[in-house]
Structure formats: C-alpha cells, structure tokens
Automatic annotation (TrEMBL):
Domain Potassium channel inwardly rectifying transmembrane: 37-180
Listed transmembrane segments: 73-94, 151-175
Species of origin: Pomatorhinus ruficollis (streak-breasted scimitar babbler)
Keyword Transmembrane found: yes
Catalytic reaction list: K(+)(in) = K(+)(out)
Name this protein carries in UniProt: KCNJ8 protein
Gene name as annotated: Kcnj8
Amino acid sequence: MLARKSIIPEEYVLARIAAENLRKPRIRDRPRKARFIAKNGACNLAHKNIREQGRFLQDIFTTLVDLKWRHTLVIFTMSFLCSWLLFAMMWWLVAFAHGDMDPSTENPSNSTKWTPCVTCVRSFTSAFLFSIEVQVTIGFGGRMMTEECPLAITVLILQNIVGLIINAVMLGCIFMKTAQAHRRAETLIFSRQAVIAVRNGKLCFMFRVGDLRKSMIISASVRIQVVRKTTTPEGEVIPIHQVDIPVDNPIESNNIFLVAPLIICHVIDKRSPLYDISASDLALQDLELIVILEGVVETTGITTQARTSYVAEEILWGHRFVPIVTEEEGVYSVDYSKFGNTVKVAAPRCSARELDEKPSILIQTLQKSELSHQNSLRKRNSMRRNNSIRRSNSMRRTNSSLMVPKVQFITPEGSQSASET
C-alpha cells in the first residue's frame, strides 16, 4: 500500500519482504497418513491384480448381493428377458414342427379337424407373448396349450422351473440387500473426537458411542485395535500391524447395555500401546485406533458391525465428555446436541509410564488445578462485588439527581409557605 502511494520505494519493500521470509523458519506440514478405516466405517483398501476372477462366480449369490443396485437390477432384467426370448424360440419351434404355422391349418375344412399344440400361436410375436404368460402366470385366455404335443408339456414344465428359480434368487437378493447389517449400523454413532483424561487415578483413552434407535443391539461388545507401521528386530516392515487393547468394563463378558450413550474407557497401563506416549508426543505419532462395535439387531436377529477410527489429530489430551443424560419428570432424557462436546480438565502432560513412576505428578497437577479454580472463583467474586458496588453507586447518583430542593415563597403579609416542586 505504501509502495503504491510512492512513500516508500517499491524495491525497498520487496527487499524487506524477502529478508523477512528468509528469517522465518519454514515449517513443512507432515504428510497426512491415509486412514485404514474411515470415520463412517468404510475400509480404505483397494484390491488390485486379482487373477482368479472366477472365484466370484462360484459364489454368485454373494456377488449379486455385493453389487450396486443398478447393476443388480440390470442383471435380473436381462435374466427375465433372456428366459422369455429363449422359451419363445422354443414355443415357436414346437408350433412350427407341428405345423401350426401353416396357413391351411388356420381355416381347416369340415372333414378334418386340426388341433394345434398352442392355440393362437401363428408368429414369433405370439410365441413371445405366450412365453411371458406361462412364466409369470398371467393367463389372458387367448392362447392356451392343448394335449396334442407331449413336447410342449415338457417345455411348459421346464419354463416354470426356470422362472421359479429366477424369482427365488431375485427375491432373496433384494431381501438381503435391503436388510444388510451395515444398514442398521448407520444409526450407531461415535463421537468425532476421542479424549485422554484422568479417571480413577489413571490416564484413560475414552470415546462416546450411542444408538439412535429405540430397538436395542443385543449382546453388544466393543473392541479397540491400534494399527500402526512397525519394524521387527529382523528388519521386516509390517505396514498394518494390528494390536488389540483391552476395554475397561466391569462386566466379565465384555458386553455393554447400549440403552443410552456410553463412554467407553481404555486404561493406559503397561499393556497399552499408548503407555509411553505423552501429550507432546501424541501429535507426532503415526497410529490409528480402530473401534469395532458388534451386536445382534433385536428386530431382525442379524449380526451387525459398526466401525470408526481415531488418528492422533482427533485425540484431545486433557478433555472430558460433558454429561448428556438427565432425568426429567421421571424419564431419562438424552440430549444428542451435546453428544461430542468436551470440556477441558486437569490432566498431567506426561506419559502413563512417567505417571506410574512418579505419582506425585498427578497430585501436583490436581493441586495446581484446584488453586487455579480457587483463583478464578476469587476473581469472579471480586468482579461481582465490584459490579454490585458500581451498580449501587450509579443508583445513588441517579437518586440524588432526581431529588428536588425545597423552595420558600414569601407572601406580602410576611408569612412564609414552603412547597416542593
């Protein structure tokens, strides 16, 4: 702006900007690692160079269920059309072989009575319409089969069996696609962020899970896995090394009663991969915590699974989830608008190993937190006291300004009368 007004030469401004850029250290962001499990539970994995494609055809039903809806509908539509055309060709051949296509048989003489295999089948179009009527059992009544040709009876039985098979596969595939387990998992939600805070004197990794439906998930269980890139002592690089970590659950069966949102807790102890990680080291860690919730849908009895993951940038150190379950008029109410809200609490910035070796760190942290809380209360009380004093002083000034002095009036007779105006 100054250079445009010719107050400072433009060359000087450019030289100064270049010098400032040289002095400032250039911090390059660390390349973000690709997630193994997305936040919606989808696996971020691509299969390439699969040579044995025929294995998918061996399990054709599962392949049809896994396909997209548009592909499935196109396959079933083509299946019906091909079966109708195939049996239409067979009906046309039966009628042609029997002589039903001969024009002389359309109006036979009185001496000879002609009985066709299928009445009113004189062309391929009529044979195609009869094929549709047979397979979908419409039966308009214009075309019908007679007992003249045993081969026609065989074709009728064969077409009915093929039509039933196609209908059964289509209905089963559509039912499985509409009642898939991951559809129920859409109403199982996880908090966008996880937290690390002190609970019962231990550093804990916590996240919140909830179910939006009133129909429950029976025998629900939660598993947590840490996925990270590791190198063995022999030099072998394992790009996806999975380690199970325990979940703090007082129930021995590890099942949870998911009637309301719960906070799942993992105690960071010696068995945990997070044991040596401090608050400053967390941002530099290349790890991903995968959460898997499994259970049986109460209404359908199908086992469902919901997944999510947390990377280092999504873990808040020294935070705690706010309570969202309250009792209102004898009913427990859940406020899902605060589902992922957290509040900052006192927590040591050291690792769990250092906290186990020096328990005094936790005591000092809690003492500092208590002192800061007391100081904040004192400041708040002093501010309230000052505000009340200022308010009372302002009210006094207002009252004094509203007071009217008394004025004395002297009459000619010498008597004095006082009145207020």
